[in-house]
Amino acid sequence: MKKNIHSRSSVSVKKTLLCAALLAGLATSASAFADDINLTWNGITLYGTVDVGAAYQNHGTDYSHDMYIGMEYLVSKNSNKSVTSITNNAMSQSKVGLKGTEAIADGLDFVFNLEMGFNPASGSISDAVKSLTYNNGRALNDQKTAADGARAGQLFNGQGWAGLSSKEFGTISLGRHVTLLTDTIGKYDPQGGAYAFSVIGYSGATAGGGNTENTRADDSVKYMYKYQNFHIGALWQFGKNSGNPGDGGQVNVGADFGSFSVDGVYAFKNQSIAAGSLSSAQIAACATGVTTGCGLPRDSLAATISDNESWTLAASYKFNDALKISGGFERIDYSNPSNPLAANFETLGGYLISVTNNNAYAHDKILKVSWIGGKYNFTKEWSLGVGYYHYDQNDYHTATVSGAVVSAPCSNNSAGSCSGSLDAFSAVLDYRFNKYFDVYGGAMYSKVSDGLANGYLYTSVLSTAAGLRFQF
To answer: CA-based diameter of the chain, in Å?
Structure first.
């Protein structure tokens, strides 16, 4: 185990050095391109976002230096106390990246995109999975902000791909991609995926087709094609690797007709991983050898494994330059994995899954997500965004009777598998000084009931956040 710890430390040092080199290079590039407002040189563009601010919650928990959301703006099981804190990424994920286009033949370009997400309030590379390890064995009222996620401390935790692009035949690329479903959810979210003001921005369940680790697809191929008013896309994730053992696929079809846009997405992911912190009982089982192969508490996690399938339909309409409304609906089906995963494998970021649950869905869990909202521009500088988000979970509760698993219906908070719902309302006011700099302030109120409130210390949270954002 000491060897593993030293190896992880070595990897962290290497990541730090690589990031320092990358940022130094980007700073040099920015200086060299100072006269070019788009920071583009020979087809290579430097881009990024820095978003910092402060937040208050009536029932919250402490800020995380690693989790990219910063604070738990949405009601969570460990929401418990009044919290005021410096935070980051309330409106947008802070990031820095390079993208490029280079002509290699008539009508054919080489394209690439490399992107790293970070937390400016702590200076850390965004690492959601690491945040879970800090809550291992802790009581709910002693936990910090933590959640699973696709950004797990990788150098290019946003995306990292390269490919070929043709106006006639479309674009095909290989590598780590933002998925088609994630692109679509962001396009039709009235709050633009803001962590502090959007349920579907804060929680990757919707954009990930059930689990947030699936918002980005490692070892995947992505194809995009546009013809007149229509566009199509396809993505395939090969899986069969240490971080993503299961394969997956997505198909997107959409159209734009003047002020009206619509998209539909089908997605599936086999052996989908929902990582979580270890309970004190699970840590004790590891320590006593009841559960074998565990790492140290800071290296190990638990996970629920499932096969996921989702259908999504979303649309928007722009009435004029001032008002745009958008909304959507997604149906997600979770079932037990057809190929269960044994414990003691690595998930994203190299973290060890020491405990697995392959039998969480003897009856399929169905999660229906709906949302609607709009953005109104009072002037060129001032805008107001509002959104309403709703989860509806079916009753998939079971019991064992005479050795057989049977349905045991419930519509209360006695179990997480009882039917339940979540509702959230948000509003955010934004003032844009220019195309690069804006300030914002807003609030989101969220509450859970019945099965979705199982184990919660408080069932509602009011979160407010204000900050400033620089985009280039």
So the answer is: 76
Neighbours of 470 (CB within 10 A): 15
Q: Find, among 255, 194, 249, the residue nearest to 228 by Cα.
A: 255
Report in angstroms the alpha-carbon separations of 272 from 306, 357, 411.
Answer: 5, 12, 27
β-bridge pairing 352-357 and 300-318: parallel
Q: What is the mean pLDDT of each run of 10 residues along the chain (472 residues)?
A: 41 45 44 54 90 96 93 95 95 96 94 97 94 93 93 94 96 98 97 97 95 96 97 94 86 97 98 94 83 75 96 96 96 97 90 93 97 96 98 95 88 96 98 95 98 96 97 94
State the DSSP string of 83-152: EEEEEE-SSS--EEEEEEEEEEETTEEEEEEEEEEEETTTTEEPBHHHHHHTTTT--GGG-BS----S-B
φ, ψ at 3 (rounded to 5°): -60, -40
- Domains of the chain and any CATH numbers: 33-46+97-112+162-464 (2.40.160.10)
Number of Cβ within a 10 Å radius of residue 212: 24
Closest to 388 (Cα-Cα) out of 147, 186, 185, 200: 200
